[in-house]
């Protein structure tokens, strides 16, 4: 592995840095999405059931105990308003949902940057390797003593290209997975947010003004 790294030339260092950064960000995102996928849906369904049973205090208490989840923060932003109209309630849900989008898409730009730059660095390594190969080759010396320089240059070109593609493909697999989880999360926010808004409208229309301010 060390010999391959050395053979890849100078572009292997930024590729190594991209790999380390990419793996660190992947670990953070895996932990983030694992926490959401293992807890959030269950907690939100429990909150909706409590709210449906007119247990506003219990619903708020459960939300506050799980405020590290995006959807619970969205629900809290609306439920903690004091006697809002249905329109104000809906706007609170929507504005907080917009505020959570950067949290859900965190590091996506960094992933895209690595995916875009890694193959280009590999291509740069290819060009540098070919330049080194041709620079060490004389027309009258084919098969002579300088063919080792040609071989080294070609090796640098191939290793750097392969390394850039490997880094880009590895990061791309996880980036697309996180993008899919983000889209699912947006759909879940719309679904559960719509259910909460509907329950609130029903409470509001029947004149039940037991809101967060009375807990």
Structure overview:
This protein has 215 residues and is mostly helical. It has one domain. It has seven helices and no strands. The chain has helices spanning 2-7, 12-52, 56-65, 70-79, 86-104, 108-135, 147-205. Helix 4 packs antiparallel against helix 5 (86-104). The radius of gyration is 28 Å and the shape is rod-shaped. Pfam families: MotA_ExbB. Residues 67-190 form the MotA/TolQ/ExbB proton channel domain. The chain crosses the membrane at residues 6-27, 114-137, 157-175.
Terminus-to-terminus distance: 63 Å
The overall strand count is 0
What low-confidence regions span 5 or more consecutive residues with pLDDT below 50? none
The major sheet is characterized as:
none
Overall geometry: rod-shaped
Q: Quote the beta fraction.
A: under 5%
- Structurally, how many domains make up the residues? 1
Radius of gyration: 28 Å
Structural class: mainly alpha
User: How many DSSP H or I helices?
Assistant: 7
Helix % is over 70%
Order of secondary-structure elements: HHHHHHH
Mean pLDDT: 87
Features:
7 helices, 215 residues, transmembrane, mainly alpha, 0% strand, 80% helix
Give a concise summary.
It is a multi-pass membrane protein. The chain has seven helices and no strands. With 215 residues, the protein is an all-alpha fold.
